Amino acid sequence: MQEKGSISIHTENIFPIIKKFLYSDHEIFLRELVSNAVDATQKLKSLGQLGEFKGELGELKVKVSVDKEARTITISDRGLGMTAEEIKKYINQIAFSGATEFVEKYKEKDAAAKDQIIGQFGLGFYSAFMVAKEVEIFSRSYKEDTEAAHWVCDGSTEFSLETTEKADRGTDVVLHVAEDSDEFLESQRLKGILTKYCKFLPIEIEFEGEVINQTQPIWTKQPSELTDEDYTKFYQELYPFSEPPLFWIHLNVDYPFNLTGILYFPKVKDELQFQRNKIQLYSRQVFITDEVKDVVPEFLMLLHGVIDSPDIPLNVSRSFLQADAAVRKINQYITKKVADKLSELFRKDRTGYEQKWSDIGLFVKYGMLSDEKFYDKAKDFALVQNVAGKLFTLPEYQEFVQANQQDKNGQTVILYTTDAEAQHGFVQAAQDRGYDVLELNGPLDAHFIGQLEQKLEKTTFKRVDADTVSKLIEKEEATESMLSEEDKTKLGEVFKQAISNEHMHVQVDALSPQDAPVIITLPEFMRRMKDMQRAGGGGGMQMFGNFPDTYTVSVNANHPVAQRVLNAESDAGSKLARQAFDLALLAQGLLKGEALTAFVKRSADLLAAE
């Protein structure tokens, strides 16, 4: 039997389209051909289990070989095989509807149309022509009394098909590599591709006498079959140079979608690791991509591990995820599993959970900010830490400070610092009043504070250096001023003239004599906006970066220095006021350059005068 004919695709242009547009990454030809061989092998195993194939299965390996001199790559399997009629059906007639419309869309290089294609067209085999100038198929069906067939195509739409001799069932696909694809004749290049895409395929893949894959990766097993050592060992295989993970979540669901996998919470030391170690997406153990932003919630993109689902829709080249209802359901399922795991860890081993908080806090806060359902679960296991290092849940902390840190309007005021060292004086002043201070210095904390103020009833947050301590939490009883209104006005004028800065708003306040003589603060609103901007608030908050800081200068009417300034001669009083102001600048880290030099000289003069 010998036959010649045309591949039924209704166009002369399909191959350049496949080569240039559909499969832009040429190396995936090997993934497609090996996947086809694995499928054929698995189908034969299934027929054997059903009793529809009664022969000996024998060794079921897919073998890949390269002959650099002959310029060929061969992919061989001992699976179902094909008769000549089946080759005509499955290879010659590219099995998709609307072929003409499909080709027209690609002629226009319509990226949107390309992304809408789904992987049902059977075009994987034709990826071979990205690297081959001619492709041969030698195939013999598992069915009895059938002849082997030999198919040849040179990359045009013409083919030849004839009977041939082949001792064993299965299929050999032989690629005659084109001159512009010499890289694929190198053994190391092929091994690299096989390791990347086929490392976990369910049928053994042999290349140059070596099996390169694990046929039963641990995500295909039940958690009850696995030990902690199994999970950590697998993590090291995925990310060889990373520290052991903090913990992991085993995903295993078959309704309403199929999904397996393992997500690891990593111990990350720097941002480069975030970028390097990504979650890997597989479909039936074939590696697809590590760009999983639609499948995994954005706040969990910092996790590591593997997700495997045949239900995630891909375009025909498997290069792009199709966002649809199934993907959204998977996304929601993963969110729920992560929340449940964190809740379980918190309930079962709070001490261990607290020890991990510095590593997982970023994930939890990001999740609370970006996903309402996650917030609802996480509010009971999210932690905050005070400057003494003690950790609280949000409800615990509200209860802890409610009695002492309630202002005259019944609002619970939560004090926080973004830098306990730099703001030490303000922290100390708050603690001297018996107040507690949280440390909120993470990259998301500016946004997190805003969210908590919206969510927590009758609660507000104030940075500890946003005002004098008596004004941070205003009580019914007010400290009385030791100065008359006339003296307060006079004192304010002396400081305004000594400071002579339009961005420093001077006010005279009745503070405790134990407080500093002058306290400089940036109002909470302005601080909040600047913190949000630094944290990537964007939008309208960018405007605050263009305005100079306007500070409040609180002169303590009840401090002995106030009386000394009022009693001194004009020049001496102004000099003393400036000295007190510079001390306040120094406490805020705002005294620099020429002003710092002048302060040091003035201090030396005052010491000498004493």
Automatic annotation (TrEMBL):
Annotated PROSITE patterns: HSP90 (PS00298)
Gene3D superfamilies tied to this protein: 3.30.230.80, 3.40.50.11260, Heat shock protein 90, C-terminal domain, Histidine kinase-like ATPase, C-terminal domain
Keyword terms of this UniProt record: ATP-binding, Chaperone, Cytoplasm, Nucleotide-binding, Stress response
Family: Belongs to the heat shock protein 90 family.
InterPro entries: HATPase_C_sf, Heat_shock_protein_90_CS, HSP90_C, Hsp90_fam, Hsp90_N, Ribosomal_Su5_D2-typ_SF
GO MF term (any one): unfolded protein binding
Entry coiled-coil feature ranges: none
Binding site residues for ATP: E32, N36, D77, M82, S97, G98, Q120, F121, G122, L123, G124, F125, T171, R318
Originating gene: htpG
Protein name: Chaperone protein HtpG
Domain of life: Bacteria
Lineage, opening ranks: Bacteria, Pseudomonadati, Bacteroidota, Cytophagia, Cytophagales
Organism: Hymenobacter metallilatus
One Pfam family recorded for the sequence: HSP90
